[in-house]
Write a structure and sequence with these properties.
alpha/beta; Spore Coat Polysaccharide Biosynthesis Protein SpsA, Chain A; single chain
């Protein structure tokens, strides 16, 4: 562990493992016009040169580096995130990543918004753009509303009308503790959305206008991993998220519960289709059980939906092959 000291109300926390874009992430943090923060880097027993890259910034940033001896991310990304948060003590926390970047005025804009709102929100967030491995912008995400409740945010996500990511969030440590942390789904798939909704129950979520976070979509992302094993795990996580979501609406927004039932079904099968992998018999059987248990479908309905997705995928692959030959 190596560290330098500075007191601040804001902790920027990087749960680190990959080194490919880490230097770019740290450069964007070092370029902040307001450096009234402390940076914590938790190395998840990475075989890559994370420590060497961090050391380059030890004189440029108020930081603390800690290498964990046990790799936890392969078992639970959320638990690794949370042990990194526990390295810090500041009242506001920004979990960033080892491959994304922030505009140079992000920290200054957060403090300005915190002052303007008298710290009246548990969760503040930035709008985002998507960048590729070369750092070139590929997508400009739809802007978030100035304020919204957790339930409204969740409905927007189920309708696929907006994107979101953990790295755009700055949250109150007290609210994080009161909420019981971040919901832990496999691969942390949809964990950020559940966390946003949970922190938007007591107080509205507040969007910070102006600077944005650049979310990197590259081959190194779990989001971009199309392997069969990852696709199946994502689908299991999506099923967990569906159950969590319906319980959330029953508890916190019962007037929208009926809409949530319909939307979660559409959302889940859309996720299954965009995975672009054939579904095995076991996965189709699990989908069937979910459809019967959660959406009240007759047994066999969910299994048939899985077979339809497989047929559609096979058709698309055949069409694509003929198109290549033409």
């Amino acid at each position: 562990m190596f560290a330098n000291s500075q007191t601040s109300p804001l902790a920027i926390v990087i749960p680190a493992y990959k080194s490919q874009f880490l230097r770019a992430a740290l450069q964007s943090i070092a370029a902040q016009t307001d450096k009234h923060f402390r940076l914590y880097i938790g190395d998840d027993a990475s075989p890559e040169p994370v420590a060497e890259i961090v050391r380059e910034f030890s004189e440029k940033l108020p930081l603390q580096y800690h290498r964990f001896e046990r790799n936890l991310g392969k078992t639970s990304l959320v638990r690794h995130w949370e042990r990194c948060v526990r390295l810090s003590t500041e009242p506001w926390v920004w979990i960033f990543s080892d491959d994304d970047c922030m505009d140079e005025n992000c920290v200054a804009a957060f403090f300005a918004e915190l002052k303007n709102t008298a710290a009246g929100h548990d969760l503040y967030r930035f709008n985002t753009i998507w960048i590729n491995g070369a750092g070139v912008q590929t997508v400009e995400s739809s802007t978030h509303p100035v304020t919204e409740t957790g339930a409204d945010f969740l409905l927007a996500r189920l309708r696929d009308s907006r994107n979101s990511c953990l790295q755009e969030l700055i949250f109150s440590r007290r609210a994080w503790e009161s909420a019981g942390g971040i919901p832990d789904f496999p691969l942390a798939w949809n964990s950020d959305d559940a966390f946003i909704a949970r922190l938007g129950v007591r107080r509205p979520i507040k969007t910070i206008a102006g600077p944005r976070v650049s979310w990197r979509v590259s081959e190194a992302n779990i989001s971009n991993d199309k392997s069969a094993a990852t696709a199946n795990t994502k689908l299991k996580a999506s099923a967990d998220f569906v159950r969590w979501t319906l319980d959330f609406f029953e508890t916190h927004a019962p007037v929208a519960a009926a809409d949530a039932i319909q939307l979660t079904e559409q959302w889940f099968f859309h996720c299954a289709a965009t995975g672009w992998r054939f579904l095995n018999w076991s996965t189709c059987a699990e989908m069937d059980a979910l459809a019967a248990d959660v959406w009240g479908r007759r047994r066999g309905w969910g299994f048939r939906q899985g077979m339809k997705l497989n047929f559609r995928l096979a058709t698309e692959k055949i069409r694509w092959r003929f198109k290549r030959r033409a």
